[in-house]
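Help: why these numbers?

___
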Amino acid sequence: MKTKPVMFVAIALLSASLVVGCTNLQKSESVTAQPAAQVSPTQAAQPASSPSQAAQSDPAQTPIYTDNQGVAIDGTDPVAYFFAQRPVPGNPEFSHTWMNATWHFSSAANRDLFAANPEQYAPQYGGFCAFAVANGYTASTVPEAWSIVDGKLYLNFDLGVRDRWEQDIPGNINKANQNWPAAASDFKG
């Protein structure tokens, strides 16, 4: 029957696309700009009051994804995701050092909110790709590929990977929470 080879090829292609996931491509490769993820009222526009289960492992050993200058989230204000509901460029004038990374903010007020409780605003998994961590490894992220779920900020490698991560948010968060301690300890920065 001719449909069996076609079906086999389709299944093989689908399986291969699911395995590929995030890759450690260079940040210089272009990412198509698209609107940021929408935050629904059920996704809690207010940040969570406690760190994630994954972040409860030794925070002093948690790696933070930074650029070549040690700046987190490519200089994007982490607090702004919660209140402006979009990535907002930070200003080096309003910076704070936490977890050996420099965080930039769009205002002194946002910097002060972060400094008072960084775990409340910092991205999960040290700012590494949430989809990658769910699959047992780390990958870089871009500020535009974000989601807030249950008051926590998650970043992804790019908008396409974020779309894949959002297909099973609870399952991916559960897997990432389980994988993060090992992925963090294996990180060679």
